[in-house]
Design brief:
Structural class of chain A: mainly alpha
CATH architecture of chain A: Up-down Bundle
Number of helices of chain A: 7
Largest interface: B-C, 103 and 101 residues
Chains: A mainly alpha (243), B alpha+beta (405), C mainly alpha (566)
Order of helices and strands of chain B: HHHEEEEEEEEEEHEEEHHEEHH
Radius of gyration of chain A: 22 Å
Oligomer: heterotrimer
Largest sheet of chain B: 8 strands, mixed
Strand content of chain B: 15-25%
Amino acid sequence: MGHSHGPAYLAHHFETPKQQFESAKLGMWAFLSQEILFFSGLFVAYGIFRTWYPESFSVGSHLLNWKMGAINTAVLLGSSFTAAMAVQSAQKGDKGKTASYLIVTFLCAAGFMVVKYFEYSHKWHVGTLPGQYFGCPGFDCSNGPTLEFAEEMSTAIGNSYENFGANMVPYHLRTFFGIYFIMTGLHGVHVLIGMGLILWMLKRNASNEFSAEFYTPVDLFALYWHLVDLVWIFLFPLLYLID
Amino acid sequence: MNETEGTIQLPPQWSTIAPEVDDMYYAIFWISVVFAVGIYASTAYFSWKYRKRKGHKAKPTGHSTLIEILWTFTPLILLGWMFHEGFVGYVEGSVAPDNAVDVRVRGMQWNWEFEHEGGVIDDLGVLKVPVNRPVRLIMSSQDVLHSFFVPHFRVKRDVVPGMYSTLWFEATRMTGSEATSGGACENDSQCAEGTGCNWGVCTPTCTTDTDCQDTLTQGAYCGGRPPEPGAEPVRRYCTLPVFCTEYCGAGQGITRSAFNDPDGPGRNTNHSTMMAEVHVIPEANYQEFLAEGPPCPSQCTDEAGECDPTCWGRNLYSQNGCNACHSVDGSSGPAPTWQGLWGNAREFSNGAEAVAAADENYIRESILNPGARIVSGYENVAMPAYRLSDRQIEAITRYMQSLSE
Amino acid sequence: MTVEAEVPHTSDTASQGEPENYLTHETGLTSWLITVDHKRIGLMYLMSVIFAFAFGGAFALLLRTELATQGQTLMEADTYNQVFTLHGAIMVFLFIIPSIPGALGNFFLPIMLGAKDVAFPKLNLASFWIYVLGSIFAVLAIVLGHVDTGWTFYTPYSVGRNVTGGDQAVLWMTTAVFITGFSSILTGVNFIATVHKMRAPGLHWKRLPLFIWGVYATAVIQVLATPVLAITVLLLFMEKTMSVGIFDPQLGGDPVLFQHFFWFYSHPAVYIMILPGMAVVNELIATFSKRKIFGYMFVAMSSISLALLSFVVWGHHMFTSGMSEYGTMVFSALTFLVAIPSGVKIFNWIATLYEGSVSFESPMLYGLAFLVLFTIGGLTGLFLGVLSVDVYLHDTYFVVAHFHYTMMGGTVMGFLGGLHYWWPKMTGKMYSETLARIAFGFVFVGFNVTFISQFIMGSQGMPRRYYDYLDQFQPFHMTSTGGAYLLGIGFTIMAIMLVKSLRSGEKAPPNPWGSASYEWMTTTPPHPHNFAETPIIERGPYDYHLCSEEELWTGFPEDFKKGSEA
């Protein structure tokens, strides 16, 4: 086929850059709608089990560190802003600014993951783990729960909306942490994928692929990133801030 | 053939809701036939009439919004009617009348256990219900999903672990031979040849399922268990089958897992053989059953229906797990052996009297209230109290007697 | 429609003066394995799904053989349970779902749109390889263990804690389902963007071939429903490995919740399966009646409304599971609505035959078979929508026969019709019409023998997934097995016919059926970019009355020119 049919970024099967951009954008929206349905399943499970076992969710929530969650919320919101700014700079063809905004976004994402790491490793260490591993530090149930676990548990129970007495550990905390880990875990995977995408964007930006005419990948990445942010906006209050 | 006797499509009707379900089934069937014939006839006619041939050319497709709207929306009326009828039938089938008899049903891989009122449990997989009286089943599962299905009653309900589900039906006919007009009886001599008096009903006896198709009804099945290899033939009665319709697996490495395999434990080894049997019996006999407990198992009755209580006792001994602690050969265990127990003086570490002879009353007490007197030299191992009927206790006593002879 | 496919591009023209085609313009194994050409990807899908179908079919024959007689015929109960699980899982996840969209859709959707490729060719390739990866996991599950849960993976059986069953290999199988799900999602995303944005000039929505409408509606379901399945199997995975107590009642979970989740995907999935079949049949009926589909917009919209309705009727799989009476009422009422768009399609197809010029080449035979069999499948669906009757028929062979009439009598007939119809375009070879008709005869008769007997034993109360059965069902099972063997013979003849066609089939003309639809306007086999020049669409795909005789010419273009000169 003729290679003279358009600029270098125009793939062979598209007629015009506009068609290419619109297709990509629509495809991304379709993809995001499946992402929403993907997380919806988890939110439904969350809703059902919170209705059935409110005490477990209350205590479970108090076992999470809301301060870390709040920091992460702020970090992600900030990164969403910088991602939007990266798109704007790319639209203007400002390669330098695009790169810096992308780097800031990347750093925010990395910051999020570092906080996440601390949260997870704490839970690993204490034993606030899902299912049969609840009360088993490091997924090792042979030694039984640690003192730290017991202390955290009694504080959390004391703070929850209904005090049952320090010895009443609600049974369905195992389910709460199952849901906590699968929700935040899948979200974390999305953040990691986003970080990979940023690196790819940076590479393409460095090799002058983007211009005021062609900035589609940055645009699509930002859409994806906003969704990742949005999911967290729901996760944070639902997991960390319930009474 | 009368519809209550079953048709090529549906088995015989045996409950109060069966005629309603069947009427609805046939209503939809004939509606479907009308539609299908219409669709096939017009397809065939148009394909033939407008077939490709010389000089014939397709006409450009016209357009008729009226036709479109008509055939899009008029079926709604029919569909609305079907929905309504089906829903009404469903609601009727899901709310049991107040005067219903309760039976608790436990599903487990791969058996049904029926606990009748008062805790009376017949052999595993035997459900007895009174005729012309609503019966409500309160069902639970011990392991995985099961589903309780009796085709003749047109009822089905999943049995879900972690919750109770209920189902009700009212049987309209006894599971007796038609040859003796419904088949009420008091003993075998009143029943025609090929039938036996089974809880007040002359019930056809059988050795294969096919026997029951003619003697009882279409879709019936031969209840009881095929005899163990080499054992005496036992009397089996034709009954209505209970199927499990929710897939529940199979035991691994069980080769003889078929219904009618003569060489082995055919039934209750996998999902497809998770069978149970329903006996619909007269109200009076049902009350007698509740009062006196389950009957002598068919393995222990001879051709004339006479029970061998020693055999029954031996059965109960293994069925109830007595063998886990009590030996019958004199060997020691966590609990006293049954060999030579009968009639011996027992010394107790607790209780009012220190010594008593092992007689009927002692044995009865030890079954119903095991902790009352503990034989010296044994720990109280918290043997569960067994809810056995007088006749079962008597059978166990007779078995013990036989071990002391 | 102006297509100048014959205009040779100097650099593109092959040695014998043949127009360049997608099969020959690149060679070597890697030119296939990492191709981004939707046609080659479509062919790879086609080979994979045919392979999966052969596998699933072999399992079906094993099942039917086992059931031919009472007791043990071939295998033990435990083995039987694995075989029916594999039959179901392979047929559903590896054959039917990817069959028409993945193979025929991939190949023809861009061509029918006058596009050079799908919107995201690399994603398309990724989606194929993800499917292959998923299939590998499925094979591992078969090899490594013991998947005997049924294709529905109902809990708590599949969790397998303190119960007999639920081997660890279930993890492999659910992983396979998870992965193939992503393949399905990506295909859906790709098709949505392609249909919206890649249409040739002049191809507005009212000129879209109905095949596209059907595949488009399917894509919407694929994108919106499949992620829920992904989450479901993920939660099942967690339940099995960590006992989190979501689906296992022993830990406070709810097995019925699993069913809700599962059917929230799997009911729409039924439409992922049937809509493409209907989509193909539209093309068959139009082409072989030489007439535009009657009520075009109603038929197009019926696909869309089926797609939407499919999301709100999942509860009808659970009428006996323990839902509230209100739940069953709502789901039953909504279920009846599904009958409307299905009926609309049937009525409009019949109206298309009226005043057409109907011919009966093998693709049309499959099209008519679809009409006949899907009618039965649809009408028996009414029995199952009526609550009181459903309670009786649920989980019996009646249901088994019902969904085989829709899935096999519907989708598979549509798939086979499409395969026969487009075979010449895809391969450039004709096949033996005689053999094709003989194969059709076996398939059609065999199918009905197999499943009508299952309707009867089902309404007599024979439960499904049974390894053994009572005496009374023996004749029906025997008949059903006989029918299955006829099917096996039919498919074998078909396989022979297709292989013969590939090896020694006559060269196919560009438009052997004289169709007015767009995909026939390009060369055979198609140009690497589908059309040498982007076509400009000036008429609808079924506007036979606007077509010149040359456009509808069924022979080679040279012959037409000779004929018109003579």
